[in-house]
Amino acid sequence: MQLYHHPYSLDSQKVRLALEEKGIDYTSYRVNPLTGKNMDSSFFRMNPSGKLPVFQNGSHSIIYNTIEIIQYIERIALVSVSGTRNTITPSSGEVIKWMNKIQEWNPKFFTLSHVPEKYRRAVSKFIRRVVIARMAESPDLASSYHLKLREAYDTEDKLKEPDVLHESEEKLITLLDEVEVKLNETQYLAGEEFSMADVMLIPILARLVLLNLEDEYIGSRPSVDKYLSVVKQRPSYRKVIGKYFNGWRRQKTLITTWCIVSIRSKLKRY
Q: How confident is the model at residue 55 (pLDDT cuts 50, 70, 90)?
């Protein structure tokens, strides 16, 4: 099994947390979207949307949808413990309800709106040039690359619209308020046991911490704050998120990516 992912990608984090929690072995391929690696023709042919993660089991089974990947991982885990003393049960309706609710919130505009404009514009410009370069190298994929180029311009336009940003923030606030109410009643999101609903939620909370918005969105919700402190102790969190974004590692991860983008831009190596 192969997973194409990157630490910056929320959906990648969700899938990796699921794999770690279920103890599933996989081969990891890091594809950095901020340096345009997801635009390489080899990856683009496998997934023309250029989005992460991509999960592949064998030569034909390729899944792009985050919830479908996690449910597939659950099925693998169920089969792997069959005949052993260990027991794994599939996600309940309550878990699936929360998974879908969380996935409905798109973090793109909220995240980008909290990135300093200087860096956001530089990376956006770099990515557009990468797309144009890949288009010239692989003319048979030109139509798909054109869609990505249009998407990049549309994103910049929407970031100028206050209503788009307000809507994204309001959806996040509504979600966090619902989570706070639930965590007042139970230890984890779908009950007293850690589940795939928690796997979906944790990366969103980690993203708020990364953006230095912890006090505003997490600290103001006591149950969410306590919950985050608990799940941070899990080995899966430490491996998938803490390894890259805790303490000084956060600066190292971000600075390394920014240096790559800056150097390649100056050298015009797209």
A: very high
